[in-house]
Design the sequence.
């Protein structure tokens, strides 16, 4: 049972993959955009931060669910 | 390993009671509320002390405060436009509160944002504000009609969004603080000295302020979306 | 801390109270002072603008006045020159006239003098002739030499 719970929590924590890829892509695009248009840096930074926050949210959900699995089922 | 888990479980799962107000047979005050009161007292005292003596020719402190408030106004006006000016004080309050609440961990207190009740309360107030802004801007009929945009099939999803938006806000803030807390506890369990310090700076200052920023940024984005007449 | 319960109400109350307090103690006074400063700056700028306009107006006025003064000076100079010319011509005319008069008077005087001299000479000649005749009658010697010696005598005594 404990092993299964651990596996479940690990699977929930896999959401971090998506968030990592998403934030990576967003940041690379933002770097390109800033290189192309340095004068739009502020706007790009704001949008990047928003996108990162939204992408990061999925990782956070996974983390919270993993914690809950461990705490409530363990 | 088992005792760390048990300890953490105990820390997370029980509502810590800071003290009990001895009226009506004793009202228990959770520690998050007590810390919130402390933060409120500090912020308000700070404001009273420094804002009261404001002059037309600013000193250093006044310039800093003015720059901060001016930045808040510029930032939110950029998102909300001129007609959203009346929501700025609330958003600024939330920004200051969450920022202080996340930083408070540096002083050895438990951040109030680690209490799900606080983040959930903030998120619920945010969604109430968003919908209120929508109603105020479009009228009740226009607000109801905005649910079937861009087409009628979207109605259940739009209604679902009312729940999802604050849930996402609440969980993002709570998850970040909780994640920071768990990681910090694990690091402290492994290396109790020096090593946790930079991590503490990252999680408490950088991440804390970033989450405060993101929280109010998303709230103002939702408000501007709700006010948008299309 | 993971469970939601009634203490969520505390959050509402706290945030609303904090919002009201911050609105009273932070946002309103700061925005008031910012607006006041903006108003002050705008007023100063407006003031400067009006001052600038006034100065430009004054400058234009002065330039105009300077121009008018210049033309007036020109007119005065011209008038003076004209006056001087007229005066000069008058003076020259008068001088010419005076000179003419003087010459005329002088000529008249010379004429008169000459006539006077002629008259005197005539009378003297007559006189000399008379005296010569008298001498000749006295000497009865009407030689060449006696006449010339007589003439010499007369000339010496007459001079």
Sequence:
């Amino acid at each position: 049972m404990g092993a299964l719970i651990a596996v479940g929590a690990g699977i929930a924590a896999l959401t971090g993959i998506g968030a990592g890829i998403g934030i990576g892509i967003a940041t690379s695009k933002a770097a390109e955009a800033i290189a192309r248009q340095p004068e739009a840096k502020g706007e790009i930074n704001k949008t990047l931060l928003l996108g990162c926050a939204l992408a990061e949210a999925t990782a956070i959900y996974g983390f919270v669910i993993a914690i809950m699995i461990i705490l409530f089922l363990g | 390993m088992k005792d760390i888990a048990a300890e953490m479980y105990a820390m997370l799962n029980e509502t810590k009671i800071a003290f009990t107000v001895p009226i009506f047979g004793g009202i228990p005050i959770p520690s998050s509320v007590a810390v919130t009161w402390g933060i409120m007292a500090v912020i308000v005292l700070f404001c009273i002390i420094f804002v009261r003596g404001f002059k037309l020719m600013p000193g250093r402190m006044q310039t800093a405060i003015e720059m901060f408030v001016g930045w808040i106004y510029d930032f939110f006006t950029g998102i909300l436009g001129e007609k959203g000016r009346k929501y700025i004080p609330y958003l600024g309050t939330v920004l200051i509160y969450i920022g202080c609440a996340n930083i408070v961990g540096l002083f050895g207190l438990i951040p109030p944002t680690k209490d799900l009740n606080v983040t959930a309360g903030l998120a619920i107030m945010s969604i109430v504000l968003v919908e209120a802004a929508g109603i105020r801007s479009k009228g009740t009929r226009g607000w109801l009609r905005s649910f079937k945009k861009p087409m009628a099939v979207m109605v259940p999803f739009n209604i679902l969004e009312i729940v999802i938006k604050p849930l996402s806000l609440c969980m993002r803030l709570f998850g970040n603080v909780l994640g920071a807390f768990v990681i910090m506890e694990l690091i402290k369990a492994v290396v109790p000295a020096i090593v946790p310090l930079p991590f503490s700076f990252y999680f408490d200052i950088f991440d804390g302020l970033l989450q405060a920023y993101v929280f109010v940024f998303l709230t103002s984005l939702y408000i501007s979306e709700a006010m948008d007449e299309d | 801390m993971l469970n939601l319960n009634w203490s969520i109400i505390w959050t509402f109350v706290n945030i609303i109270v904090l919002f009201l307090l911050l609105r009273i103690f932070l946002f309103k006074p700061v925005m008031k002072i910012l607006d006041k400063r903006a108003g002050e700056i705008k007023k100063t700028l407006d003031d400067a603008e009006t001052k600038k306009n006034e100065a430009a107006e004054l400058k234009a006025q002065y330039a105009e006045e300077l121009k008018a003064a210049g033309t007036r000076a020109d007119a005065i100079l011209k008038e003076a020159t004209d006056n001087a010319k007229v005066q000069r011509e008058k003076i020259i005319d008068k001088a010419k006239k005076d000179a003419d008069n003087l010459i005329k008077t002088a000529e008249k005087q010379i004429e008169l003098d000459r006539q006077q001299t002629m008259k005197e000479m005539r009378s003297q000649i007559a006189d000399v002739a008379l005296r010569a005749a008298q001498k000749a009658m006295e000497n009865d010697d009407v030689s060449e030499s006696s006449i010339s010696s007589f003439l010499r005598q007369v000339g010496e005594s007459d001079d």
In short: Residues 132 and 154 of chain C are 9 Å apart (CA to CA).
